Amino acid sequence: MIVAHQVDVLELVRDLNHQAARYADTIVAMASGRVVAGGPPDRVVTSDVLSDVFALDAIVVESPATGRPLVVPTEPSTVGARGLQPHP
């Protein structure tokens, strides 16, 4: 895997953990112009949604600090050659 894709994964996880899942009341995940999931972070930031939208293999646990979803990548090398672009 190209280092740039590893950086993309880390940036996505950072954004989800420190901004979207931590502070948002509502999140909308989109791919190819369509809503894949919408609602509170605990219903949107899930392993299935991350896989469907970003091809990211991760587990999502409850943060002990905030009670919000916390994304933990399991296999960063599985991010496809297209990087973290939404699935077509």
Feature tags:
88 residues; single chain; alpha+beta; globular; 4 strands; two-stranded antiparallel ribbon; two-stranded antiparallel sheet
Any chance you could write out the topology, listing elements then pairs?
Elements: H1 3-23, E1 27-31, E2 34-39, H2 41-44, H3 47-54, E3 58-62, E4 69-73
Antiparallel strand pairs: 1-2, 3-4
The average pLDDT value, as a whole number, equals 78
Unreliable spans are 77-85
Share in β-strands: 15-25%
The 3D shape can be described as globular
What helical percentage do the residues reach?
Answer: 25-40%
- What gap, in angstroms, lies between the N and C termini? 21 Å
Structural class: alpha+beta
Largest sheet: 2 strands, antiparallel
Number of helices: 3
Over the alpha carbons, how many angstroms does the gyration radius reach? 12 Å
